[in-house]
Structures are given as C-alpha cells and as structure tokens.
Amino acid sequence: MILIVDFGSQYTQLIARRVRELNVYCEIHPYNNLPEFNDRIKGVILSGSPCSVREDEAPDIDLQNFNGEIPVLGVCYGAQLIANKNGGFVLPSEIREFGRAKLSSVDTHNELMKEMSINSQVWMSHGDTIAQLPNQFEVIASTPSVEIAAFKVQGQDTYGIQFHPEVTHSVEGKIILRNFVVHICHCSQDWTPDIFVETTVEELKKKLGEEKVILGLSGGVDSSVAAMLIHRAIGKNLHCIFVDNGLLRKNEFHDVLASYRGMGLNVKGVDAKDKFYKALHGVVDPEAKRKAIGKVFIDVFDEEAHNIEGAKWLGQGTIYPDVIESVSVKGPSATIKSHHNVGGLPDYMKLDVVEPLRTLFKDEVRLVGNTLGIDKNILGRHPFPGPGLAIRILSDITPEKISILQEVDHIFIKGLRDRDLYDEVWQAGAMLLPVQSVGVMGDERTYESVVSLRAVSSVDGMTADWSHLPHDFLSDISNEIINKVKGVNRVVYDISSKPPATIEWE
Length: 506
Ligand code: XMP
What we know:
The protein is of the alpha/beta class. The chain is built from 13 helices and 19 strands.
C-alpha cells in the first residue's frame, strides 16, 4: 500500500486516482492524523498544500518515521518540506509559477526519471521555490525557470518534485508515479475489481457471520453495488428496503425494484408516497424541502427496520470521496446545498455501520459493479438527487405537478437513449418552472407552464458544462413535450455552466 499524506492540496485526490490506475492500493490520510506505521506501507507520497513551509504554523510531519527506511516522494509542498527540514532554502518565487513548463534536463539514469523525455511538458503550481538544496541532495530534473524541478537524496529512496505529476497536463506524470510506486516501492499491481470483490466478500463473511444487515437502496450505483457485495457474503440475511417517495422518475420504482429482485436481492418495496406528499404540502423553500424529505425518509426507514427482528448492522454505500471529505485537512467546504438525504439514523437504532465501498472512487465502484454482474441499466445511469423531482419543481409540490414533470422527463430521457446521446451527458433532467406563459394551440390561446431541460457534462458534479445537444434533437423533444404533455406550452434549454449556476435549480 502507498500512504498519501495530505497537506490540503486540491490535487491530493488526483494522486490517489493515478496510483489506483496503476492497480496499486493507496490511502489518503491527513498529515495531522496519520495511521501507525506498519509493514503494509511500502511507500509514502507527500502531497502539495496551499500553505508555505516558511509560515510558522506550516503543516509538518516527523519525517524520521520513514526517512531512509521507506521510499518517500514529496510533491510540490511535500518536496519543499523535505528540502527545508534538511537544511535547504525555500524562498518565494520571483514570479509565481502556474501552468505548463518543459523539462530542459532530466537524469534518465535515475530510477524516478527512467523513460522520461527531454522537453516533456509538466504542470507547475507553486508560489515558493527551492532555492538551494542540502549537500547530500542531487538535482535530477530542471526546467528553464526552475533549476530544482526534481531531486533525490543520495543514499536514500527519498525524492522531491516541484511540479505535479498527478495532473494530466504533466503529460508523462504517470511514468514518474509508476517508477516510484512500482520500481522504487516494489508495490505489486494487483488491485483489480476481481481481487477487491474476492477479498471484500471474505472480509464481510468474517465480520458479519450469521448476523442480519439492513440496507436502504436508492436505485443509484453506490447503494446497489454495496448491496450486491453484502449479498454475496451473507445472502438472505441482507434485508434491503427501497422506499418509493413519489418523487422518482416515471415507472422508476417498479422497474428498479424488478431489477433488484432479478439480481436475487431480498428487497422490500415500500410505497410511502402519501407521507412524503403530506410533509411537502405547501413547502417552497429548497432547503425546507430537503429537510422534510430527509425526516420522512428516516421515519419510514425506521418503521420498516423495526420489522426486521434482530438486525445488528446498517449497510451503507459510502464511497471514498465522502470519507476523505469528512476527514480532509480543510474540512468540508461551505454548504451550498445540503446534499444529505439520510441525515443519519436515530440513536436508539444502535446499529453498527458496514460500508464495503469506503475505499473506492466512483469509477471503481462501477468496475466492481460490473464484476458483480449488476444490471447495466443501474450501473450506467445518470446521478439522480435523493430529493428527486421535489427540487426540480420550483415552488410547492403537488401530485399533478409531479406527474407533469415525470412525463416531460420521460420524453427527454427516452429521447436521449433513442438517439444514443444518454451516455454522452453526465446528467440530464427537466425543471418545472413556476411560470405560466401565453401560447397558441390550434385557434386556442393557452396559458400554461414552462419547463426547462438541463443536460451537463461533468466528471464529479463539482463543476459542469452545459451539453451542446444537437439542435434538431432539442427541437424534436420540444415538439413532443408540447404535443403530448398537457399543461406545458413552452420548453427552454438551460445553457448555464457550473459555476456560477448549479446543476439542479434548487
Ligand atoms: P448541484 O445542483 O449542487 O448538484 O450542482 C451537484 C450534484 O448533486 C446532486 N444533488 C443532490 N444529490 N441530494 C442528493 O443526493 C441532494 O439534495 C442534491 N442536490 C443536488 C445533483 O443532482 C448533481 O448530481
């Protein structure tokens, strides 16, 4: 395993992604809460940081623990920290160095730099620079403006690089990470979905024995994959609950429930539509909607869970980015929308939590799902928010509005699938606006609702671009919606990106 020490850089997760792409297992831990050192740790990568090693309160760790014993690679701040602690000089750069640079010299005899090309493009992002190295350090790469772009400590497997090998703009960055992880740390490249499934199922069997687990399915990728893993380990002792909150897409509850049953899951579908509609009656504020939905969900889930006698565990589909977010150096970023659908369970349920996907990134969850043979329809589906259509109906929620929006959404999503555009967008849906507009149908004047279609491309939902869907496709969908959905006489297409807009309208 590779230990990645997080000093708060925006790129720390990317380092982990790149290491995992080499099929090597790694974990990120904040610098101020590191695990005990053990034989499993074959190498350490020190991340970048928004801080400067010259500050009094600069994040720091005791390098003695592994210096000389385990290979260490410092990236940007990590490299400056190694140099600074050993008697080198780190100074503010005369020009702040952000962006592309080219390696003007590189020592390809050095293990870390093997197979790197001269002129290779690298990505710089730093305000400080290493002005002078300690005596026993040697320079192994330079750019025209950064002489000490990479260094090695003589007689030790300790390295530093000033640029960021983890970002794709460092074109050969993967070579450096491979050299470090595979050739210097000697990690075996056996972190594959198959091995993950095999070892996780074994661990779950040991951990859970004959005990019962309850798990709330949402129809999304994470909870479905978590359920299948636990199911492989304990079969019918996994009791799944799938709640119909009445805010899902058209036919979704029945279709997804049938898929789950087809996969052999022991799942109970609970129709709680009326409870959700009642709690949402007259609620307009988006955050109040989320709170109301979260509360009813807990009540319904709790009631169902009580019917499952002797349950000891609560299964959850928590994935690695959620885990890192909750322990990261900077802590969770400011709440723009409260994205929690399940605001935690009441204390008296006192169940232990089992989270088999805690160490996986989203795309790894999909690979694992694929290995488990999960329905492509579930694995490949767009993200859908927990509060569902409630946050796509601007203003108050009524069953009539939900049914209008379900029809509109259905035409849009089916159209995307039929035209092979579904997989090209990251997420798509429709918003029902609190606006009536004048139209004309036949000889009649109409005064009806406006819907906005939204489709975006994104990697993780944090930023997103509006999708440039073909005009003739949008035109066909608009016609179909206005002709088929009673109550809608105007369709608009949202061309805002995130930021500054968000993906959902509420
Ligand atoms: P925004 O609107 O913040 O959405 O750009 C980013 C991603 O998060 C989803 N989203 C939610 N998911 N509960 C969820 O489970 C929520 O309350 C919620 N709000 C937004 C949104 O669909 C998009 O994928």
